Amino acid sequence: MSADEQFAQARAGNAAALVALIREHQRAIYSIALRMLGTREGAEDLTQEVFMQLGAKIGSIASKEHLRFWLRQVTANRAIDQLRHDARFQMLPLCEESPLFRESEHADPLLQKHLHALLAELSAPARAVLLLRYQEDLDPGDIARALEMPINTVKSHLKRSLEALRNRCGLTTT
Amino acid sequence: MSDDLERRLRQALRPVSPGEEFSVRMQERVALASRPPAPGSNSTPRRVAASWWLSAGLAASLLLALGVRHRAGEAQERLAGLAARQQVFVALRVTNQKLDLACRTVLSESRDQP
Fold first, then answer.
1. Through-space distance between the first and last CA atoms of chain B, rounded to whole angstroms
2. What is the pTM of this model?
3. Is A35 an interface residue toward B (CB < 8 Å)?
4. What pLDDT band is residue A74 in, cutting at 50, 70 and 90?
5. In this predicted complex, what is the ipTM?
6. I need a labelling partner for A139 at 20 to 30 A (CA). Which of A65, A127, A168, B59 fits?
7. Which residues on A lie below 8 Å from B7 (Cβ)?
């Protein structure tokens, strides 16, 4: 079955096709939730909520591209709302065994440590901008649309976050 | 330098897996929620029909209660009318008897006068 057929079947109410779509996107959605909220428990709850909402709204999603954008938009905005309303999520936990990053042979533990500290410091919208740009590779225009903020605000969040990370890593500005 | 930092940032921010156990749990939940209702279960048309019959039954009961109340009111009024008529008859009879008595008294007194 092609990806387009799978999407069409999910829209038509085929549960197996919907599960396949979820499987395709769950790593990205879970990772946004985890890096926004900072806890496994919070990330799992948010991921489930987003996919339950997808199950109810799939009929109104026009295409696979729309689906990809919609999932990231809903996840980021729900996480921002949660961070604003729930004091438990205001700061990321700073424990060493945090599961925020992937263990791999290419991993840069020092950068991960600085990045973790930076994410903990950033406001919820700035955190979402950084993740949508560098985890999900959305361009600033799409990030502005997803988070309903001016594009210049997106660009200034990105600039400030990169500067802060560069300073943490001891890199000079070019 | 900036490009290198961005590249390293992208690498560090590659998605992490939620774990197979969580994936299975979540997918089962979503699949269950999106499954159409089984035949014979509380499907929407049945619920609509049931609510229609409930509304119709309530409306019929209300009309019946209003009708009974109206009929009971009419009967009560008829009984009150009959009672009032009875009272008028009694009053007329008493008056008639009093007038009769007065008339006889006057006549006997006029007969006894010299």
1. 155
2. 0.68
3. yes
4. very high
5. 0.83
6. A168
7. none
